[in-house]
Amino acid sequence: MARSAEATASIAAPLEVVWAVMLDLDRYPDWNPFVVQVDGPAGGRGVTTRERITRLEPPGAARRATLEYDFGGPLATLGLVRGRRLQEVEQGPPGSTRYRTAERLHGLLAFAAPIGRVQDGFERHAAALKARAEAVHAGTA
Q: Which sign, positive or negative, has the C-alpha torsion 40, 65, 107, 128?
């Protein structure tokens, strides 16, 4: 049984700015409520996961970019819960970018995955990315 979560945002900043914010891993703790640290243990509350980037397509002539990665850890290794998170940005009307993130969880224990928490995290992440990219674009971040 597969379960999924998805969130979107319309961001008032150019594609290149949004993409740069997405790839600035050192700054994630400053703005990202879903992923608070990218390397090493986070400490405190939360869940530590290991993910592997499976696709990284920077902005090009198509005016879109993609970052995709697989959920890792013991549950994935055993095939109990697997997931692949997709993050896409696409140039919208001049000066704006459309952001979309989605993940489909599958495996024997996917039915027990806290999909509501994942959905909430995705929505908070999309809103925070919007706020951060717009602040960077405006020169206030």
A: positive
Residue 88: other Cβ atoms inside 10 A = 16
d(CA 125, CA 52) in angstroms, rounded, equals 19
Contacts of 77 (CB under 8 A, 6+ apart): none
The token pair at 8 is: 């979107």
What tokens were used for 15? 């594609």
Q: How many CB atoms lie within 10 A of CB 47?
A: 9
State yes or no: pLDDT of 42 exceeds 50.
no
The pTM score is 0.85
Among 110, 107, 114, 112, smallest CA distance to 79 is for 107
Residue with tokens 């995705």: 122
